[in-house]
Design brief:
316 residues; Rossmann fold; ten-stranded mixed sheet; alpha/beta; single chain; 20% strand
Length: 316
């Protein structure tokens, strides 16, 4: 079953990376936009925003940002009401994204809006961020009708010489290609993995790297269908297009693979969007993630820090 995007549409960006992606998606979809962040530097004068204040704390924890988000819940709910579709952009490798994404996605679900969530996952060397990203993704997937995930770590596995900035640029570009295709292609209403390659490769190597990324994120039998976006397809020889079509059909089930060549970009590469059913590598980021929701205590409220203003004195 495919996810149906209905107007009016609101794109929400969380934190620094999420806000940048949201502004680009807004321009592509000609939709409304909302930026939510604990850092006022992420705000633009012409874009509606909500500031999640952590007051005097300079380096707030994920739990503190999450608790502070609940304090402005009424303001957020008022800004997201009335929209049929909400697209949530978040970087779960960052504090703001992993802190706020579970809270905002829950509010969108309560508002009875169709929610599509985009999430960027951290590199494996960012060990202090992996657990929080895994917990946040599990909750975002639960609250969303459709979740689209990009894994920085699997991109780095295929291209170990890339800098972090280059990986971020590739991730942002791949996600925008998917957003721009909303009017011409369908997206499955479940978990979807975006995979791609570095710039400057020929189209066959780009497909190879995309498949390598895909099977670094999920087992072969969990891929139910794939959409192949051929960027700059109008500039690629027909024989090459036929070659990668046959190669994709040989690896994936031919009836479950589709191709989109509407992009008119000058660069040429492959971006794959694959629908996944079952376990992914991200389920292992949270050691307790295997416990079913019905057997989990306090599932409905994620871990957060709040100021109870208790006047307690230390006893020596």
């Amino acid at each position: 079953m495919s996810f149906q995007i209905k107007e009016p549409v609101l794109v929400i960006g969380l934190g620094g990376i999420g806000s940048k992606l949201a502004v680009k998606a807004k321009d592509s979809l000609n939709s409304d936009c909302l930026v939510i962040s604990n850092d006022k530097k992420d705000f633009l004068s012409d874009i509606p925003s909500v500031h999640v204040s952590t007051y005097s704390v300079i380096n707030p924890s994920v739990q503190l940002i999450r608790g502070s988000t609940y304090k402005v819940a009424d303001e957020i709910r008022s800004k997201i009401s009335g929209y049929s579709t909400i697209i949530l952009m978040s970087n779960l490798a960052g504090k703001a994204g992993s802190a706020m994404a579970p809270v905002i996605s829950e509010m969108c679900k309560e508002a009875d809006s169709g929610l599509m969530s985009f999430a960027i996952m951290p590199f494996k060397y960012e060990k202090d961020r992996i657990f929080n990203s895994g917990v946040s993704l599990k909750r975002v997937r639960e609250n969303s009708e459709c979740t689209v995930v990009f894994d920085n770590d699997s991109l780095l596995d295929s291209n170990p010489d890339l800098s972090p900035k280059a990986c971020y640029d590739i991730a942002n570009s791949a996600m925008m290609h998917v957003v721009e295709s909303f009017g011409t292609s369908e997206i499955s209403s479940q978990t979807n993995i975006i995979t791609t390659s570095r710039n400057g490769q020929n189209i066959e190597n780009s497909l190879r790297d995309s498949l390598k990324m895909l099977y670094g994120n999920a087992p072969l039998n969990s891929v139910k269908c794939s959409m192949l976006y051929v960027v700059g397809g109008s500039n690629i020889p027909v024989g090459v297009i036929n070659s990668i079509t046959n190669l994709t059909a040989g690896i994936l089930n031919e009836s479950n693979s589709q191709m989109d060549m509407t992009s008119s970009s000058d660069e040429s590469k492959v971006v794959m969007l694959s629908s996944i059913q079952g376990m992914t590598k991200f389920d292992n980021y949270d050691p307790l993630g295997m416990i079913p929701q019905e057997d989990t205590l306090d599932w409905h409220t994620p871990d957060c820090s709040i100021d109870c203003e208790l006047d307690l004195y230390q006893l020596e």
